[in-house]
Amino acid sequence: MKWLSLYPDEHIYSGLIRYRIRMGQGVMSDKRFFSHNGLPYQWFRSQVPLNHLMRETLDIITPEPDKQFALRLNHTPFAPWLLSLPGSMAPHELKEASHRPNTEENPFQVDRRWKYCPNCMQIHKAKFGVSYWRATHQLPGALICEEHGTPLHSHDELRYLAFKLPHHYLHKSQALVLEANWQHDWQSFIYRMSRQLQSNPEWARNVAHCMKSYLGLERVIKHTHRVRFGGFFECMKEDLGQDCLAGLFTRFARGNGRQPNILWLTLSGYSQGKGLRHPLYWLACLFWLRSALPELAFLHEHRSDHGS
Ligand SMILES: [Zn+2]
């Protein structure tokens, strides 16, 4: 594939849409476009950087693992997945989550539609002549543009991306609303966490240990520790609030049935089931401890480069 270079923070699928236009493949049917380029015929989803379509897309762009890793890290909302990296694995080896397609996002409440910032869009149009989808605007729970501090926009059609760039939605999209208090704090949290992981992909390796040591837990968790986890999780629920857990996890949003102990599921390593623990589990726990863990000091630092 004669791939084109991506703009800063441009999502890979946004590049694929521009590629199709550039190559004059817009006249083909969608199905034909995918088969012509050796890709599986699948919807573009905003928050699944480890799925089959993304792997195949990266494979046709470049065969080199390092380049694939850099593309995934800087051009999809992949960075939080590094929190889920198994200890035995190098960051660039993380290529799949082994979840069943289409059901992997069901346990989560965050808005999965594609989002864009109208201000960024105008700037990109002026600077590059096109608008494009930014990867970091697709981070779970992102509702504002970090650069402009203004709400991101979305539209119900944007559950999947139908080969359209953001400017197509300019006059029909709606601004996202920050409904709950926790969402305000989540904005800088998710952007800064992502940036931390992008600049140091190995950083997450120590996160579980830091959390355990702060909570006074042993390195190896045993089933008998579950009672203590029960107590910790009561604190976590109290501190985060029901709105926050309901905004992240479907089981809490429904308000009936058993509510899983998120801290236990994240830290114990048990009940892993098939596939990786989704990063939202890790993010929820870190969000809880964001003011407590010294390793998270970067979340509170003043950014002198902000807006530059
Ligand atoms: Zn913006």
TrEMBL record:
- InterPro entries in the record: TniQ (IPR009492)
* All copies of domain TniQ, residue ranges: 4-152
| Name used for this protein in its record | TniQ family protein
**Annotated source species:** Pseudobowmanella zhangzhouensis
